[in-house]
Write a structure and sequence with these properties.
With 307 residues, the chain is mainly α. It is built from 13 helices and no strands. Helix 12 runs antiparallel to helix 13. The chain starts with a helix and ends with a helix.
Length: 307
């Protein structure tokens, strides 16, 4: 039963979040939680192993195609521009800032995912100002559009750069801190579960708010779009990865920084478009829960063989 604590904790986070939408008021703590997780992860990182591989380039291409082709496909099949925008914002999200920490729980190479995180974030933030007006079908974005892009990019950069820089300085001053990620892995996991709970609270509050007009049919439609996007991302990521890094490649493309796209969707496309990346949070974390359960089973089998 102890092996199932982690995956069950993630599922429990969504249950709590659904019944307590009031927890959305704690959204201000999410960047701090992500920063803490990144700091702990990068303390144990071998920066000499961080390098851009061919599969990273493939991941970036797929990341952009997921947004563009997702938009075109949903628009062609449904004829609904708002649903197509939900697919666009869901697909365009770069790698989640928490992905390297999750990789450590899954015993994957953190350096690979860290490289993918930095590359996808940079490319998406660079191309979004070009692709968003196209997705809005020629609608002119307001004069503050570029400023909004820069503000979000600056916020994402600070969330990433500050913990990385602090970890580098801390490790140089205290080399023994390199052991902290393993020593305090349960603390880092608890921070992740807490963050997922708050995100689930925000999703619940969003869905329940009458102003957003999220009825059962819309919820099912956008839920199906985001679920298909999630399956595509994890599967395609696995297929394009080098044989040694297929699980890492899958995680890099599949686990998304949805907060970035929720912000832009809310600003320029409305609540329905923002619902796509909002629901993606549920799917990619349920996928992570399944991965944790599989990892726990593999660890238990290895222990039994060694006994």
């Amino acid at each position: 039963m102890s092996a199932m604590i982690r995956p069950l904790s993630l599922i429990g986070a969504f249950v709590v979040g659904w019944f307590f939408p009031q927890g959305a008021a704690l959204k201000w703590i999410i960047p701090w939680t992500v920063g803490f997780m990144l700091f702990m992860t990068f303390l144990g990182l071998n920066f000499h192993k961080i390098r851009i591989r061919a599969s990273h380039v493939a991941i970036v291409v797929l990341n952009l195609l997921a947004g563009v082709l997702g938009y075109k496909l949903v628009a062609a099949l449904s004829g609904d521009h708002e649903l197509a925008l939900a697919a666009f914002f869901t697909g365009m999200a770069p790698t989640a800032t928490a992905a390297p920490a999750i990789a450590s729980f899954l015993k994957r190479e953190v350096e690979y995912i860290a490289a993918g995180l930095m590359l996808t974030t940079f490319v998406v933030m660079l191309t979004l100002p070009l692709l968003l007006p196209w997705a809005l079908e020629g609608a002119s974005t307001n004069e503050g559009f570029l400023s909004d892009v820069l503000d979000v990019a600056r916020s994402v950069a600070l969330t990433m750069v500050v913990p990385i820089a602090l970890a580098r300085v801390w490790r140089a001053a205290a080399p023994s801190a390199a052991a902290w990620p393993k020593r305090f892995k349960n603390v880092t996991f608890a921070a992740w579960v807490f963050m997922v709970t708050v995100i689930a609270c925000r999703a619940s509050a969003f869905i329940r708010d009458p102003a957003n007009g999220v009825g059962p049919q819309i919820l099912l439609s956008v839920g199906a779009i985001s679920l298909l996007a999630c399956v595509f991302n994890f599967t395609a990521g696995y297929l394009v990865g080098e044989k040694k890094y297929r699980p890492e490649s899958s995680q890099t493309l599949g686990q998304k920084n949805t907060a970035v796209m929720i912000a832009f969707a809310t600003l320029y496309a409305g609540p329905l478009a923002a619902l796509g990346p909002t629901l993606y949070v549920l799917w990619h974390n349920l996928w992570n829960a399944a991965q944790l359960a599989w990892q726990a089973r593999a660890d238990r089998a290895a222990e039994e063989r060694a006994a």
